[in-house]
Automatic annotation (TrEMBL):
<comment type="similarity">
    <text>Belongs to the type-I restriction system S methylase family.</text>
</comment>
<keyword id="KW-0238">DNA-binding</keyword>
<dbReference type="InterPro" id="IPR000055">
    <property type="entry name" value="Restrct_endonuc_typeI_TRD"/>
</dbReference>
<dbReference type="GO" id="GO:0003677">
    <property type="term" value="F:DNA binding"/>
</dbReference>
<keyword id="KW-0680">Restriction system</keyword>
<feature type="domain" description="Type I restriction modification DNA specificity">
    <location>
        <begin position="233"/>
        <end position="409"/>
    </location>
</feature>
<dbReference type="InterPro" id="IPR044946">
    <property type="entry name" value="Restrct_endonuc_typeI_TRD_sf"/>
</dbReference>
<dbReference type="GO" id="GO:0009307">
    <property type="term" value="P:DNA restriction-modification system"/>
</dbReference>
<feature type="domain" description="Type I restriction modification DNA specificity">
    <location>
        <begin position="73"/>
        <end position="202"/>
    </location>
</feature>
<dbReference type="InterPro" id="IPR052021">
    <property type="entry name" value="Type-I_RS_S_subunit"/>
</dbReference>
<dbReference type="Pfam" id="PF01420">
    <property type="entry name" value="Methylase_S"/>
</dbReference>
<protein>
    <recommendedName>
        <fullName>Type I restriction modification DNA specificity domain-containing protein</fullName>
    </recommendedName>
</protein>
């Protein structure tokens, strides 16, 4: 039997004008740079000011390769002309949990100086299109390499020499590189535009909630539906008198028979599913044995829950019958007095308050007495329904927009898998 040989590197999808351009070629990243990878400066950050350059650190780069605009800082000392990022420069995280993360400099981001835990690479544009490199840095092949290289020690890290050794496959002409880069960048632009629409919807919802509920010290909202403008003040009532309060428990984790029994059980592992209206599924399920041999109880569908410690203030509505851990407070509303969706939105409004009053050195917690004495302002059930319906419709728009963005990202991922060649071996 002959030894396996590598096929010529050819992507599954190629633009028509490059169908006969030949196989892609193997390089190391260092062969395609205008200079060796460079480390950033080690200087303290200072509060952001327009008079000083922006200081970009590992923590300032988002997962999608953008600069986090809400946490900009500046740098005042130790900066030379060489420390400024230029068009086409890419910086790579070299240590910690973010190792491998990348950012491509854009002139619209202003004057940027990169910090010491970042490494700059400068593509030689006669050999390597910088946008194509940036797109390659989000492929599964790249991240497989990052995980392999950085897994050699307890603290993940990749140095400049190692980044220079990064294997990269390139088409034979820069023109084809540019075509691929332009295609993928156009999808990125579309994702960015749709993401901005999503952010605008969330801002709209936040403003709407601030107007549909009374501000602190007031008893009527600033914005009221026409049919309720003469309905009078909202009434302050104890939540205890409007809904039946409960909690939950964690069955003994040492007893395997207490788990994987098909009963949905909301725990801290489901924190990322909260604040999205209904919770449909849970990461962990318990059994009837677990239910019988613990203080956990089944709560009916429609029950409103809120986290009182880790992820404090996050809330949701149970879509079906579920149990919860002791980290949650639950309410079963008397629907003749308080609608569950209205309570859910009240809890969303109160979330900053919950975060502020939680106490504890390691994990902040809200004690049970607070919830026993909690008072809320409510209008008639009819007005509650109108407000809940209004906000639910905005939530539906937000959800649809999020799904649109997810679909675009999935489309791009599939496109990248076809536009970049797959390494294969075949029998000769």
């Amino acid at each position: 039997m002959n030894k396996p040989q590598k096929k010529g590197l050819v992507p599954a999808l190629r633009f028509p004008e490059f169908q006969n351009a030949g196989a892609w070629e193997d390089y190391q990243l260092g062969q395609c740079l205008s200079r060796h990878p460079e480390y950033g400066i080690n200087a303290p950050a200072v509060p952001y000011t327009e008079n000083l350059p922006t200081y970009i650190r590992i923590t300032d780069i988002s997962d999608d390769g953008q600069i986090r605009q809400d946490q900009r800082v500046s740098v005042a000392k130790g900066v030379t002309d060489e420390n400024y990022l230029e068009y086409g420069d890419i910086v790579l995280a070299r240590t910690g949990a973010s190792v491998g993360k990348s950012y491509k400099y854009r002139t619209e981001d202003g004057r940027l100086v990169f910090a010491g835990f970042l490494i700059r690479v400068k593509p030689n544009e006669e050999k390597l299109n910088s946008e194509l490199l940036f797109q390659f840095l989000s492929t599964e092949r790249y991240w497989h390499w990052v995980n392999f290289i950085s897994a050699r020690s307890g603290q993940p890290g990749i140095n400049g020499n190692e980044y220079a050794s990064l294997p990269i496959q390139l088409p034979p002409t820069v023109k084809e590189q540019q075509k691929i880069a332009d295609c993928l960048a156009s999808i990125d632009d579309l994702i960015t535009a749709e993401t901005q629409k999503l952010a605008a919807l969330k801002i709209h919802k936040k403003g709407l909630m601030q107007q549909l509920f009374p501000a602190e010290g007031e008893t009527v909202p600033r914005l009221r539906f026409p049919e309720f403008r003469d309905a009078g003040d909202w009434e302050s009532q104890k939540l205890e008198g409007l809904a039946k309060r409960g909690s939950g428990h964690t069955p003994n984790k040492a007893e395997s028979s207490y788990y994987n029994g098909g009963i949905k059980w909301v725990s801290l592992a489901d924190s990322n599913k909260l604040d999205n209206g209904y919770i449909y599924e849970t990461k962990i399920q318990i059994s009837n044995n677990g239910l019988k041999n613990s203080s956990a109880v089944l709560h009916p569908s429609g029950t409103v829950i809120v986290s009182r410690d880790a992820g404090v203030g996050k809330s949701a509505i149970l879509h079906s019958e579920m149990a919860v851990s002791q980290h949650f407070i639950v309410w079963v509303c008397d629907q003749s007095k308080l609608l569950n969706w209205f309570l859910y939105y009240i809890l969303q409004i109160l979330k900053p308050t919950f975060e502020m009053i939680a106490v504890g050195s390691t994990i902040k917690t809200i004690g049970l007495p607070y919830f026993k004495d909690l008072c809320i302002f409510i209008p008639s059930v009819e007005e509650q329904q109108k407000i809940a319906d209004c906000l639910s419709s905005v939530d539906a728009l937000i959800e649809a927009q999020g799904e649109r963005i997810d679909a675009l990202k999935l489309h791009k991922k599939g496109l990248m898998q076809q536009l970049f060649p797959v390494m294969e071996e075949v029998e000769a």
